[in-house]
Amino acid sequence: MFNVDSLVLEQIILEVRFQHGYLYWDNCGKIWRDILKKHPDVEANSISAESASLVMKDSEIGLKFSHDNINISQPYPDNLKLFSEFADSSINIITGHLNIDAFTRVGNRFFYTLRVNDSSEAMDLLKKAGFINCSDEKIKEIGDQIKEPHIKFAITKSDDIGHTFSFRYLDRKLELKMPKPVKFDTSQFINKVLSLDVDFYTQKPVDLAIFNAKDLTKNNKRNIEQYFKILFQ
Amino acid sequence: MGTKQSYKTEETLAESIQELRGSITAKTIEIATNAPHLLQATETLQTNLLSEVSGFEEAHVTSTEKLAAERLYESATTGKPEIYTLKIINIIKEYKKYLLNSIENYDDEPTRENEMTLFRTIVYEFDYLHLDDNLRDAITALKTALFSVSKEPFRREQIVSLNIIVDIIKQNVYMSESMLIKILNMLDDNFNIAYPVEGLNIIE
């Protein structure tokens, strides 16, 4: 088992899907204007007939919306306050202009990483938790050892909500090209990790009148960290 | 009809049926209030009509049940919810039982008024929460409506309308303008929500 406090939340994503958002083509400019009024530090990334994407420069919160979904994401969120407040405000603006009053699906994804020394350590964690139960004898018949363990499964509750769990070992490389005199610090980047990717999703329509990104992300983060304690104890 | 198209149509149909139920309840209560000698017959009529509506719904409306707030924000840990949305819903659930007891015991005046006294304090629960603008306006109007009934007992239609209103609030924590207007209209129909400014001379 590992300490949940040692996990790094590398990315959070909130996505809502809806139908009949055809006013996107009429109101894209109005949406952009109203978001800019509330969040002057937002910049346009790309705007087209298919979708529009904006980004908050300092916090790197990205917003992408179209006629059938809104997607908000942030890498390495310090806390969820800024992310969820921006999500609530931008979702309200967009749904208001598109005349949307319910979502067909709500998804909230948390991408955590846990530092490990190598794939064997990741494999040990997954074995001790009972996710991989392949005996050494069977493995020896095929080769030497399992190198890149990856398991994925979903658990649903009464056809209302579900969680998809994906645990895998990653050996990542960070490549940056900078001009010669420029020095940069990559010590914060962890290359060997066990990634713990959890996606919360709804299986029934959700009324806009009960939706709150702040409550949802706060509750989901707490729940997911509790699930890690249950799954890896 | 494809699934996506049918969802929107059936949502509208389900809403209409819900409104039909509300109308049947409200109007039969009105009849019983205006013609007390027909109370029993009116109650039978109400039961039959609501039963017909349920049968129609069962036969023709497939389930487009939406996700309840309690499921969306369900906590994996024990203890009181810190989730704002659930706090509002829990307050409504706690106080709604006083309304239901009051309706059930309407003819027993001491019980009815006692239950309504307990219900009145619901508005103070919201004083400790930061509410969205429209919900804040709805609660303020509800406060005014309850204060306007201080010198006489609650009428049956007033209690029924309060029951409908708290249900609306429970399903619309993040209330739209149109839902707020619906609540204000219902309160205006059954209470005197202008009483704080009654007799005031507005100089144009």
Provide structural commentary.
- The complex is a heterodimer of chains A (233) and B (204).
- Chain A has 233 residues and is α+β, with helices and mostly antiparallel strands.
- Chain A has helices at 24-38, 81-98, 119-128, 136-142, 213-231; strands at residues 8-17, 42-47, 52-56, 61-65, 69-75, 102-103, 105-115, 150-157, 161-171, 192-202, 206-207.
- In chain A, the strands form 2 sheets. A 9-stranded antiparallel beta sheet of chain A has the order 2-3-4-5-1-7-10-9-8, covered by helices on one side. In chain A, strands 6-11 form a two-stranded antiparallel ribbon.
- In chain A, helix 1 (24-38) packs antiparallel against helix 2 and helix 2 packs across helix 5 (213-231).
- Chain A is globular.
- The mean pLDDT of chain A is 91.
- The longest helix of chain B has 32 residues, at 3-34.
- Chain B has 204 residues and is mostly helical.
- In chain B, helix 1 packs antiparallel against helix 2 (39-60) and helix 7 (133-148) packs parallel to helix 9 (177-190).
- The relative contact order of chain B is 0.09.
- Chain B is built from 9 helices and no strands.
- The interface between A and B is medium-sized, with 30 and 29 residues.
Brief rundown of the structure:
The complex is a heterodimer of chains A (233) and B (204). Chain A contains five helices and eleven strands.
Strand content of chain A: 25-35%
Main sheet summary of chain B: none
Contiguous uncertain segments of 5+ residues of chain B: 1-6
Biggest interface, and residues per chain?
A-B, 30 and 29 residues
General shape of chain A: globular
Terminal Cα span of chain B: 57 Å
Strand residues, percent of chain B: under 5%
Rg of chain B over CA atoms, rounded to whole Å, is 19 Å
- Pattern of helices and strands of chain B: HHHHHHHHH
Helix content of chain A: 25-40%
Write down the oligomeric state: heterodimer
Give the biggest sheet of chain A. 9 strands, antiparallel
Which class of secondary structure composition applies to the elements of chain A? alpha+beta
Helix content of chain B: 55-70%
Strand order of the largest sheet of chain A: 2-3-4-5-1-7-10-9-8
Overall residue-averaged pLDDT value of chain A: 91
Unreliable parts of chain A: none
Supply the helix-strand structural class of chain B.
mainly alpha
Number of continuous helical runs of chain B: 9
* Measured distance between first and last alpha carbons of chain A: 6 Å
